[in-house]
Write a structure and sequence with these properties.
The chain has a six-stranded mixed β-sheet, with helices on both faces. Strands 9-8-7-10-11-12 form a six-stranded parallel β-sheet, sandwiched between helices. The chain contains ten helices and twelve strands. The chain folds into two domains: 131 residues, Rossmann fold (3-Layer(aba) Sandwich); 141 residues, Rossmann fold, CATH 3.40.50. Helix 1 crosses helix 10. The protein starts with 7 loop residues before the first strand and ends with a helix. With 289 residues, it is of the alpha/beta class. Bound molecules: 2'-monophosphoadenosine-5'-diphosphate. The site of 2'-monophosphoadenosine-5'-diphosphate has 14 residues, from helix 5.
């Protein structure tokens, strides 16, 4: 890395930021593409507005935003991408004339990660496990990209119903159906894609899944777990035991970064280069597959 007078800076705003993988992703991409850019973490204890204004004043090219600021940051934007606005969460700021434009590359990154595995959304019936912030964003993604039906299964039915009502209203169609976790026997009798969006199974409390019955997993041809630590969750194991394909969420993390990098630098990252960055990430995280 050769930092000089023309080096552009991007960074991550969040609390905490110590364990982020983003510097690995962006600094590897910059180096590989010969782009004069550095990426650094910025711990923002409070005063998010001041942080965003300060970043703009310091001529920062772009920012990522992580927990707990992904919703609050919408107040500091001059303009917001449509999907990100619908979701109500932004993880990427791109410098424009009067301020920053907001995007949600967590979701476009998830879409690209699934595409890289040959997983389709358009025209599909999809099961989402969970009804927290992540599940809500995934529900918007699925309907925005043309899923036929989305079944949201959650422990507390009220939260699943709230997402279904909201997403159906915003997307102007009855695409989402809310169910409890025990309701899976009422799902259509065909194999579907299932996206695991609960926190159950996440290290260090791994070894658990929200549904463990084999009968449920017989209905799944592909499972995508947003969790990547551990790299083989109980959910993934259960999917594979019934003959399905299963993937962890590390490629989602990769592609949310790739998409942000592309927006900041107006470049296209090739699949070969994305794979190379993925190998570096796996090395850092000690993940083998
Ligand atoms: P995030 O923002 O990452 O989505 P969240 O909003 O806290 O996190 O959502 C966590 C999700 O995991 C919820 O769907 C939650 O179910 P409830 O809405 O019923 O709480 C789900 N979850 C967490 N622990 C669970 C458990 N032990 N059994 C079943 N579901 C669980």
């Amino acid at each position: 890395m050769n930092i000089n007078g023309k080096t552009r800076t991007c960074g991550l705003i969040g609390k905490p930021v110590e364990h982020t993988m983003s510097p690995v992703i962006h600094n590897t991409l910059a180096e590989e593409l010969g782009i004069n850019m550095v990426y650094v973490p910025f711990l923002v204890e409070e005063n998010l507005k001041d942080a965003v204004q300060g970043a703009y004043a310091l001529n920062l090219l772009g920012m990522n935003v992580t927990v707990p600021y992904k919703s609050e940051v919408l107040e500091s934007l001059v303009v917001c991408d449509e999907l990100a606005k619908k979701i109500g969460a932004v993880n990427t700021l791109v410098r424009e004339e009067q301020g920053y434009k907001g995007y949600n590359t967590d979701m476009t990154g998830l879409y690209r990660a699934m595409k890289s595995y040959g997983i389709e959304i358009e025209g599909e019936k999809i099961i989402i496990l969970g009804a927290g912030g992540a599940a809500r964003a995934v529900a918007f993604l699925c309907l925005s990209y043309g899923a036929e039906k989305v079944y949201i299964l959650n422990r507390s039915i009220e939260k699943a119903k709230a997402i279904a009502t909201e997403v159906n209203e915003v997307m102007k169609r009855e695409g989402i159906i809310a169910m409890t976790l025990e309701d899976y026997s009422r799902l259509p009798e065909e194999k579907m894609l299932c996206i695991q969006a609960t926190s159950v199974g996440l290290a260090p409390n791994d070894g658990d899944a929200v549904i463990t019955d084999e009968a449920f997993y017989k209905r799944i041809h592909t499972g995508y777990d947003l969790i990547y630590r551990p790299a083989n969750t109980r959910f993934m194991q259960l999917v594979k035991e019934q003959g399905g394909k299963a993937y962890h969420g590390l490629k989602m993390l990769l592609y949310q970064g790739v998409e942000a990098f592309e927006l900041w630098n107006q470049v296209t990252v090739s699949e070969e280069l994305a794979d190379k960055v993925y190998e570096v990430m796996k090395g850092v995280m000690k993940i083998e597959e």
